[in-house]
Structures are given as structure tokens and as C-alpha cells.
Amino acid sequence: MRVGHGTARLPVPPGTPMGGYLDRPGGSAGELDPLQVGVITWFDGRRRFALAVADVICVNDDLSRQARQAVSATCELWLAATHTHAGPETGCVPGGGPTPQPWRDRIVEATRTALARAMAAERPAGGSAHQGGLRDVGAARGVPSAEPLVPLDVLAVRDPAGRLAGVLAVLPVHPTVLPSGNLLVSADLVGAVRGALRARLGPGVWVLVATGTAGDISTRHTRRGQDAAELDRLGGLVADRCAELVEAAPAAGEAWTSGSAIGWASRRCSLARGSSVADPQALLAELRAAHERSRAAGDAIATRMALSRLEGARLLAEAPPEPTPGTARPPGGKPPAPITTEVSAVRLGRLALAALPGEPFVATGEAVRRTRPDPTFVLGYVNGYPGYLPTADAYSGQEYEVLAGRVAPGSAEFLATTVSELLHDLDTPEDS
Question: Exposed/middle/buried for 304, CB within 10 Å: 0-12, 13-18, 19+?
């Protein structure tokens, strides 16, 4: 197996509309750290798989399709978003939408450039998968008392002499350390982890950080500030844990051998639209009052949680009405068009990567990982953006992710089952 890595800058001109927050006070006003598209390629002598990770808020279907059209038919390309909230707005709306120009063309061109550089850098390499827990960086943002522990996946790529050549880290934490008032372009937590890991591992070792199933996980209850210093602190914690896993924790064994073949599969899926809220306007009024009460009481945590729910209710109230479970359509009414999206899987020897679109919850990623005994890394924000994908039990509450979501209960479980079936097929020999 040959592995390569390449990057391309993604410049953001001053004044660019930024994505991620409803109450952003203006366009971009400079750069805190540079944005990029990073690509890793694996080549087995016949077929090539490329994982591209862009420092943007989301990747819509149209952007994914255009990027894939730019590569060879013998190359499978996944385009993932880091989900930084300090980058350009790329059409990140609940249920998905078109990618605005010039960003569709700019991201595709940067992806093409990074891919070409990765292919040119391909060298024989082995890999080992390392999985463990990460503490005190991310936690369930809707549960202040939740344990600050999330799964962390690290792939160590080594040259034939055993020297570390590069690292892929999959981190299921929202990169939202910087606040809505920030106007400096940044890859946020992902960029901080990249920088800290490069410093920790030394020169000549490349680093790619992808966002995992982070739909309900953020730094809300673990961060001590919302500035560059806090980015450095949290990035350092992640980098130290990645290095610890690579250097000290036992790996699950060799991820692939020199004779391993690459296999991949994908499936288009239709998700029913739906909402758990019968009267969005009434809920909006209720949550606005709850927010005011928490502010008057001076409870900072309760106020922050109430504001999050209020923002979700605003999105729901402004959106076209969605059907609620168990309600009938008006006579002669047409059913709402489903949301179409894609799940994908790739096998690299014993290691498998699973790609889920939009914002799946961490529990969904864990459910997929449990379906096979060998190492499985689950990425979110890949090849499409249907929005939040709450677990079925989350619909009983009023958290932001449920209110801002557009898919019916059970959608996350359906996607998890589908990608698990793809993984099973890739693990099953053709002559079995």
C-alpha cells in the first residue's frame, strides 16, 4: 500500500460572510490561522481512495458531486468538512442547500490541488490504528453534568523503516471554541490540534484532523475561555493524547499489509422530514420566556442552555412547516419531499472508515463501531449535509439539535444500519 498526503490553502478575503452562527456581527476581518483542504490518499496499485478534509462549515451534495467529477473513476473521493464556525458560509442550512459561489469552485480547486500533491507524495507505508478516550475537551453540550469523555481515533502511518510519516486523528468534538462575535478566520479547534500535533511529533510528520460524530458534543462545558489562548490549551490536550495513544497505547495491530486491497461502497438514502414540535410559535414564546427568566436569575449555565434552545426554536419557527409524527396530511396535500443523502464505507486492510453526512451524534458513531471487531473510524460531515441527525430518544427533549434538525425520528438509526451493512459487505469475501 502506498500512502500520500497533500494540502492546499483556502484563502478567505476580508468581508466574507462567515458560517456557523446566527448572530454574527459582520463579515470576516482578518485571519487568526489559515484554512486549508488536506488530503490523504491510499493506493493499492489498482485503486485509490482519497480522504479530503476542508476547513469549512459543511459540504453540501452539490459541492461533493463537483469535487468527485474532478477525479479519476478509479479514485474514490470523500469530501468532509471540519465544521469550523470561523470560516466562510458554504450554504449550511438545515436539510441542506446549494453551495454559494465562489466557494463551490474554490473548494473544488483546492481539493484538486491537494489531491494532486498527495498522489505525487505517495510512498510505501504501513499503518496502525489506535483508539482510546479523550478527557476534558468535549462533552454532551445539552447535559451540563455529562462526563467530559469522548472517543478518539488515531491512525499512525509509518514508512518501511518504521519511522512515523503522518497521523490522521478523528475527533468527535464541535470546533466551536471561538464565539459568535469572532470575525477572524480560523480552523478553530481542528486547526489548534493540527498545530499542536505537528509541534509534538516533530518536523517531517504530516497531520490531518477530521471531525467525527460531533453533533451533540462541544467544548461548552469544558472550555475556560473563547480565545486563541484557550484554543492552544485544548489543542494541546488533544495533541498530547494523540501522541500518547500512538507512542504508548497498544495498537490493534497492523491496519493493512503490503498486499491489502482497497474496497469501498456507498448508498444513497432518503430521509423523511419531520419535527417533534406541533406548534413552533408557541414553543418559541415559551423558550424566549425561559431565557429571560434564567438571565434575570443570573445563572450563567442555565442562560447559555436556554439561549441554545431558543436559537433552535427560532430556526424551527422560520422554516416551512414539517410534519409531526402521527399527524395526517391535509386532504389533497402532497407529502413533503424527503431529504436525500449518502453514506459510504471504505476498507483499508483491517481498518475501515465509515462516512456519515451532516451532524450525527456520538452515540451513533459508537453504534457503528460496535458492528465489527476490527478498528473502525466513523467520520461525520462527509459528502452531504442533511443537518442534525439526533438519536431517536433525543426527540423527547427540546435541545437545540432536535429543534434545528429537519429529519424524522429514526433517521440516524437508519443511516447507522445502512453504513454498517456496507461495512459488513466489504468484510465478507466475495466467494463466501
Answer: middle
Q: How far is CA 181 from the centre of its chain?
A: 23
Residue length, the chain?
Answer: 432
Instruction: Annotate 1-63 with DSSP letters as a single string.
Output: -EEEEEEEE----TT--B-S-TT--SS---BSS--EEEEEEEE-SS-EEEEEEESSS---HHH
Contacts of 334 (CB under 8 A, 6+ apart): none
Short-list 312, 269, 217, 218, CA closest to 412:
269
Rounded Cα distance between 15 and 12, Å, is: 9
How sure is the predictor about 321, in pLDDT bands with cuts at 50, 70 and 90? low
Q: Which three cell numbers stand for residue 105?
A: 469552485
Mean pLDDT confidence for 332-339: 72
Q: How far is CA 181 from CA 85, 90, 236, 246, in A?
A: 11, 19, 24, 37
Helix (H, G, I), strand (E, B) or coil at 261: coil
The three grid cell numbers given for residue 430, joined into one nine-digit string: 466475495
Report whether pLDDT(332) > 60: no
Name, in order, each residue with C-beta under 8 angstroms of 59's C-beta and a sequence gap of 6 or more.
Answer: 79, 80, 81, 90, 381, 382, 383, 384, 385
Specify whether the CB–CB gap between 148 and 222 falls below 8 A.
yes
Q: Residue 131: what are its φ and ψ, rounded to 5°? A: -130, 135
Residue 432 has a pLDDT of 41
Mean pLDDT is lowest, of 82-96, 169-183, 214-228, 310-324, for: 310-324
Pairing relation of β-strands 351-355 and 376-379?
A: parallel
pTM of the predicted model as reported, rounded to 2 decimal places: 0.91
Instruction: Give 54-103 pLDDT, tens digit per residue.
Output: 999 999 999 999 999 988 778 999 999 999 999 999 999 888 899 999 99
What distance in Å separates the CA atoms of residue 30 and residue 12, rounded to the nearest whole number? 8
In what helix (H) or strand (E) does residue 61 lie, and over which residues does it extend?
A: helix 61-69
pLDDT band at 221 (very low <50, low <70, confident <90, very high): very high
The answer to whether 218 and 97 are in contact (CB under 8 A) is: no
d(CA 147, CA 237) in angstroms, rounded, equals 16
Instruction: Output the CA torsion 11→172→376→358 (10° steps).
Output: -70
Bridge partners, residue 194, by sequence? none
